[in-house]
Design brief:
Layout (H helix, E strand, L loop, with lengths): L12 H17 L24 E4 L6 E6 L9 E9 L7 E10 L5 E6 L7 E8 L2 E2 L3 E4 L8 E7 L10 H9 L5 E4 L21 H12 L2 H9 L2 E3 L10 E2 L2 E2 L9 H15 L15 E5 L3 E5 L21 H13 L4 E5 L17 H13 L5 E5 L5 E6 L8 E5 L14 H7 L3 E5 L4 E8 L2 E8 L10 E9 L6 E3 L28 E7 L4 E4 L12 E6 L4 E6 L2 E6 L5 E11 L3 E12 L6 E7 L3 E2 L12 E10 L3 E4 L5 E4 L6 E11 L4 E11 L5 E7 L5 E4 L9 E7 L5 E6 L3 E6 L6 E10 L6 E10 L15 E7 L6 E8 L6 E7 L4 E7 L5 E8 L6 E9 L2 E9 L1
C-alpha cells in the first residue's frame, strides 16, 4: 500500500487506518530516539575472576547448562583450570555433581558445562572456582517429567543496553521468584555503534561481537536474573545485523566484509556467551530445538530469522523457516504428548503490514495454519518478540475463526512508539488484535496449568535504576479454546526457594578427594560409606576398582559408594585400597580403614585416629564384682603417650607427625581383689592429604620430575603409571622419577596418575596426579586484581593487522595508564598515555598500520602495576 501524504486525503477510511499503523511502525523501526545511560557495569575486586557473573540454561529433566566467563587476574594464558559443583542446598552439603574443566582463549575464556545426572523438577545451587576464588552461587531448576500441574515462564525480548536500564529483568526476578525459567525471544544484544555501546562502533568482527556480549553480561540487573533462573533463548536479527536473513541483512553491505563471515562471527560469540545447548555441534548456525516440560508443555524454540529465511520483499512464495525446520516443527506439533505447544519465535505471526514478519511470508504462514487446523492440533500458543510492542492476538484461521492465539512481548528497553493508538481504531481493520500497547516496555509472565494459559503483561520504566514495574493487562486462553479472554488481575506469585546472595561466599570448599576413608561397623553386618564427602552420585559416573583386597572381608565399589562385608564372626581392624577414575579428571587411590566391633562383650577394643589427635576411650571390665580400688596401665607399646583418665578410661595422645599402631593394656582391680584387663589397640593414621601437581610444558622440550609419596608407612617398593599418556612419551628412571616428551600435536592438557606402594603387609599405596598444561613460554603475568588499579578484560584481536583494542576497567584507585609496545629486543616502538581516568569500562583502540610484521610485547602500566602480553602483527 502506498502511503504518500500527498494522496493520503483521497484514500478510503480503512486505507487511512492501515497507513496510520504503517506510519507508526515506521517511526518505531526508525529508532527515532536513544536515551543516554550511564554504564551499569560495576567491577569490584571481590568479583575476580568472575566479573561477568554466572548463568544456566536449556534445562532438561536430568541436565542443565552452566555458564561463566573467567577473567584471570594474573594475565591472559592459554588455559585456566576451572572447578564447578552442583548441590541440592545452598550450603553445598549435598553434592549432586562436580567436575573440572578449562577456560581457554579459543572460547574467549567462557566456560559451558552440560551437567548430567540430575533429578527432574528440582532446584539446584551451583558455583565455579578459578584462580583461588569462588564465583557467586547460582540457582537453577531442571525440567519436570511425567504429570505436571503448573508452570511459569518469564518472557522478554529486545534488550538494547544504551536505551535504558534493564528494569524488566530486575522486576521479573523480584516479582516472580517461582518461575521455572525465563525466555528471551531475540535481540539480546544490538549491533549498532550508537550510545554507550562497547565497542563504540558497529560490530562486524568476532572480537567486536565478543566485546559487545561482554558489556551486556556485566550489567548487574542482567547478572541477577541469570543468577536465579535458567534461560531458554533464541536469536533475532540484532545479534548479527538488523533485518537479517540467511544470505544477508538490511544493515550489512560489501564494505563490511562477507556476510557469511559476519554471521559466523556473531553465531560463534552467541554460542560462547549464552548458556544454551547447541542442537548441532557441526553447524553453529542451527539453533532451533525443543524442550519438554512433562505432559504440560513443549517449547518449540524456532529460528524465523536466519536458518531458512529468504530476503524480505522478494516475490512470493518464499521460505521463512526452511523445509527441514518446517518438517521438524510439523513433526513436533503432531507427535508431542504435551498439552500446551509453545511456539517460541521472533516475528509477529498474526496479520499486520510488515514484510519482515510472517505477513511477508504468507504462503508459509498459511501452510502452518492449515496443518494446525487439518490435524486438529489444540492448545498452540505463539510467543513473539521483535516489534517492541505488547499484543494479544487471535490468529485468523483458514477454515476456522481462530486457529491459535499469540502473545507478543514488548521490548525490555528498545525504542517504542511514545503514543498509543486506541484499540477500537486498530480493530476496525484488524479485529483479531485484542490488545495493543505501543508505548511501554516490560515483559510477560506466562502461567500454564491443565485448564488455561495466562499471559500477565507488566510495564517497567527504563530511566530510573531498579524502578518497580506495574501490571498492564492479563489475557488467557482456556484449554481446547482458540479465543482470548481478558482477566482483571495477574496470577499471584509464590514465595519460591532460597535466593543466593549477590556476593561470592569464599568459605565454601570445593569437592576434594581424600586419601583415607574410615568405616566402622559391627560383627556380621556390612558397612558402607561415601568415598567423597557430601557426594551421593555423579555423572559421568566414577569407576572404581579394589587395588588392595581386605584380609578379613570383601569390598565392593559402586560410583562413589564403598561397601565392606566382614567375614563371619570377624571383629577388629581391616584395611583395603581403592582406585577411583573419572573421565576428564583422572584417577586417585583411597585407603579404606575398617573397624568392626564385636557384637558380644569383649575386653579388647580397636580405635583409629589421625596423627596429632587425642582420644579418651573407656573399657569394659565385666569380671569385676565390687567397687574399683585401683586403675593402672600395665603395658604400653607404641609411639604415643597415655595416662589413666579415671577408673575405666584412658587419655591417649597420638604422635604428631607419623603413623603408629599402639597397644595399651589397662588393669583395674576391685575391693574383693579381683582384677580385669582391657586392651586398647589404637591405629594412628597419617593426616589425609590429596596431592595434585599442576605444571606446564612447552613445545617439544623434555620435562622431568621426581615424586614423593608422603602417605607411605614403609619403603617405596613399586612405582607405576595408571594407564598410558595420550599426548606424549614417558620414561622412568631411579626409583620415582620420570621424563615426559610432549607430542608435536599436544593440545591443552595431559593428566598422568602415578601410584607408589610400600613394603607393608598389606602394602600402603599413595597416588599423585600430575596435570601438564601446554603453554606459550612468552606468557607474562600481571599483578593481582585486588591491588591493581586496572582490570584488563582482554586485548583483541591477536594476531592483528593494523589495530587492536584494549578493554579494561579502571578502579577508583586508577588515575592514569601508560601503554607501550616493545619489540623483542626491548626497544619501544609505540607509547601512549591516558590521564584523568575515572572509574568505568574503557575500550582503547591502538592503531599501528605502519608497524612491521613480527612479534611484540604489549605493556600496560598504572600505579606501579604492570600487565604484559605477547602480540603478533600479521
Amino acid at each position: 500500500m502506498l502511503c504518500n501524504p500527498l494522496i493520503f486525503r483521497i484514500m478510503s477510511y480503512k486505507q487511512n487506518v492501515a497507513c496510520l499503523l504503517v506510519f507508526v511502525f515506521s517511526l518505531f523501526y526508525g529508532e527515532l530516539w536513544a536515551q543516554e545511560m550511564a554504564d551499569r557495569a560495576v567491577v569490584k575486586s571481590g568479583q575476580a575472576p568472575f566479573f561477568h557473573g554466572i548463568a544456566s540454561g536449556d534445562p532438561l529433566p536430568d541436565a542443565v547448562i552452566l555458564w561463566t566467563r573467567v577473567t584471570p587476574d594474573q594475565g591472559i594464558s592459554d588455559s585456566i583450570p576451572v572447578q564447578w559443583m552442583v548441590s541440592t542446598d545452598p550450603q553445598f552439603s549435598q553434592i549432586a555433581n562436580f567436575g573440572s574443566t578449562f577456560a581457554i582463549a579459543e572460547d574467549d575464556f567462557t566456560v559451558k558445562v552440560d551437567v548430567c545426572g540430575l533429578q527432574p523438577a528440582t532446584y539446584y545451587y551451583y558455583l565455579f572456582h578459578a584462580e583461588g576464588k569462588n564465583s557467586v552461587t547460582g540457582r537453577t531448576k531442571t525440567a519436570p517429567l511425567g504429570s505436571v500441574s503448573n508452570l511459569k515462564f518469564g518472557v522478554a525480548s529486545c534488550s538494547n543496553l544504551p536505551n535504558g536500564y534493564f528494569n524488566a529483568y530486575a522486576d521479573m526476578a523480584d516479582r516472580h521468584n517461582d518461575m521455572d525459567a525465563w525466555l528471551h525471544l531475540g535481540d539480546y544484544i544490538y549491533e549498532y555503534g550508537s550510545g554507550n555501546s562497547e565497542p563504540s562502533y558497529e560490530i562486524t568482527q568476532l572480537p567486536d561481537y565478543r566485546l559487545r556480549h561482554s558489556q551486556y553480561k556485566m550489567d548487574v540487573q542482567s547478572q541477577r536474573l541469570h543468577q536465579l533462573f535458567p534461560l531458554i533463548a533464541t536469536w533475532d536479527d540484532h545479534e548479527s545485523a538488523n533485518d537479517s536473513y540467511m544470505d544477508g541483512a538490511q544493515n550489512h553491505d560489501a564494505s563490511e566484509g562477507i556476510w557469511s563471515d559476519r554471521l559466523s562471527y556473531s553465531a560463534e560469540a552467541y554460542k560462547e556467551w549464552m548458556p544454551i545447548r547447541s542442537p548441532d555441534s557441526n553447524n553453529p548456525i542451527k539453533i532451533w530445538r525443543t524442550l519438554q516440560y512433562g505432559d504440560l508443555a513443549e517449547l518449540m524454540v524456532m529460528d524465523t530469522r536466519i536458518w531458512g529465511r529468504e530476503e524480505q520483499g522478494s516475490p512470493e512464495p518464499k521460505d521463512l523457516l526452511g523445509s527441514d525446520q518446517f518438517d521438524w516443527l510439523e513433526g513436533r506439533l503432531d507427535s508431542t504428548d504435551a498439552l500446551w505447544k509453545l511456539l517460541c519465535q521472533q516475528v509477529m505471526f498474526a496479520p499486520l503490514p510488515n514484510n519482515d514478519a510472517w505477513e511477508g511470508y504468507e504462503s508459509e504462514r498459511n501452510r502452518l495454519i492449515n496443518f494446525v487446523e487439518d490435524n486438529q492440533i489444540d492448545n498452540s500458543v505463539v510467543l513473539t518478540g521483535d516489534i517492541h510492542t505488547f499484543f494479544a492476538n487471535e490468529v485468523p484461521g483458514n477454515s476456522t475463526a481462530s486457529a491459535m492465539v499469540e502473545f507478543i512481548v514488548g521490548s525490555v528497553t528498545s525504542t517504542s512508539v511514545p503514543i498509543n493508538i486506541p484499540i477500537g481504531l486498530i480493530q476496525l481493520l484488524f479485529p483479531h488484535i485484542k490488545y495493543a500497547q505501543f508505548a511501554d516496555r516490560g515483559y510477560v509472565a506466562l502461567s500454564l496449568d491443565q485448564n488455561r494459559a495466562q499471559a500477565d503483561y507488566f510495564a517497567t520504566p527504563i530511566d530510573v535504576f531498579n524502578a518497580a514495574g506495574s501490571h498492564l493487562t492479563s489475557w488467557k486462553v482456556d484449554e481446547g479454546a482458540t479465543s482470548l479472554v481478558n482477566v482483571p488481575n495477574p496470577l499471584p506469585s509464590q514465595a519460591g526457594p532460597f535466593r543466593p546472595d549477590t556476593a561470592a561466599d569464599q568459605t565454601i570448599s570445593m569437592v576434594q578427594l581424600t586419601d583415607t576413608i574410615v568405616l566402622g561397623g559391627t560383627e556380621n553386618n556390612s558397612v558402607d560409606g561415601n568415598l567423597i564427602p557430601n557426594v551421593t552420585a555423579v555423572c559421568p559416573s566414577i569407576t572404581g576398582s579394589v587395588s588392595t583386597l581386605p584380609i578379613n572381608g570383601a569390598l565392593t565399589v559402586d560410583n562413589v559408594t564403598v561397601m565392606y562385608t566382614p567375614n563371619p564372626n570377624f571383629f577388629g581392624n581391616d584395611t583395603a585400597s581403592v582406585v577411583l577414575c573419572r573421565q576428564g579428571i583422572g584417577c586417585d587411590t583411597i585407603t579404606i580403614v575398617i573397624t568392626i566391633v564385636g557384637s558380644t562383650s569383649t575386653d579388647t577394643t580397636y580405635h583409629t585416629i589421625y596423627a596429632g589427635q587425642s582420644i579418651q576411650p573407656c573399657g569394659t571390665f565385666s569380671d569385676l564384682s565390687s567397687s574399683v580400688t585401683s586403675s593402672a596401665i600395665s603395658s604400653f607399646t607404641g609411639l604415643g603417650s597415655v595416662a589413666v583418665l579415671d577408673s575405666f578410661c584412658i587419655d591417649y595422645n597420638a604422635p604428631s607427625n607419623q603413623p603408629s599402631l599402639d597397644t595399651i593394656t589397662m588393669v583395674v582391680c576391685d575391693t574383693n581383689g579381683i582384677c580385669d584387663l582391657h586392651v586398647y589397640i589404637i591405629k594412628v593414621l597419617p593426616l589425609p592429604t590429596t596431592e595434585i601437581i599442576l605444571d606446564t610444558v612447552s613445545g617439544a622440550n623434555l620435562y622431568s620430575r621426581c615424586f614423593e609419596f608422603d602417605d607411605l608407612m614403609g619403603s617405596l617398593t613399586t612405582f607405576s603409571l595408571e594407564g598410558s599418556p595420550s599426548q606424549g612419551q614417558i620414561a622412568f628412571y631411579n626409583d620415582s622419577c620420570i621424563t615426559y616428551l610432549p607430542d608435536s600435536a599436544m593440545d591443552a592438557t595431559e593428566t598422568l596418575v602415578f601410584v607408589g606402594c610400600d613394603n607393608g603387609v598389606p602394602p600402603n599405596c599413595d597416588t599423585v596426579v600430575l596435570q601438564l598444561v601446554l603453554v606459550d613460554e612468552s606468557t607474562v603475568a600481571i599483578q593481582d586484581a585486588s591491588s591493581n588499579p586496572l582490570v584488563i578484560m582482554g586485548i583483541q584481536p591477536n594476531p592483528f593487522r593494523e589495530y587492536f583494542y584494549i578493554q579494561f576497567y579502571a578502579l577508583p584507585t586508577a588515575n592514569d595508564a601508560e601503554i607501550s609496545v616493545y619489540s623483542l629486543d626491548g626497544k619501544i616502538v609505540y607509547q601512549e598515555f591516558k590521564t584523568g581516568l575515572s572509574e568505568g569500562l574503557y575500550h582503547l583502540p591502538v592503531n599501528l598500520p605502519s608497524l612491521s610484521r613480527g612479534e611484540y610485547i604489549i605493556e600496560v602500566q598504572s600505579g606501579g602495576h604492570r600487565y604484559t602480553q605477547p602480540m603478533i602483527k600479521e
